[in-house]
Amino acid sequence: MRPNDTPESRNVRLLRVGEQMRHTLSEILARGDVHDETLAKHPVTITEVRMSPDLRHATVFMKPLLGKDEEAVLKALRTNTAYLQREVASRVRMKYAAKLKFLADDSFDEGSHIDSLLRDPKVARDLEPEA
To answer: Measured between alpha carbons, how far is 24 from 95 in angstroms, rounded to an integer?
Structure first.
């Protein structure tokens, strides 16, 4: 830890490094640098990268385009984790190469579920202003 580090500056650093890793991973996947048949067939969106406080672990949230074959894409990413870690480490300058952990991003599904609940006639009736 640096002498002038505050909790706010550490949080900003975690966010900045996470965003840098997200861009790097997205670029690697978009270019097709990973020689994997499943990843070649399915465009993948890296929605977020959350870094651990020590910057040694990165949780990567992903979503295949249109949500198709999510499990297969997740398995392909996990199979190619070592290659992706090496590529990210060579492109993002950090003291340690972060260990990558891939997870499916369920936030879109949760948002759709909440939206459908709010559109339910029973709920919509309760949300209308009283006359």
So the answer is: 17
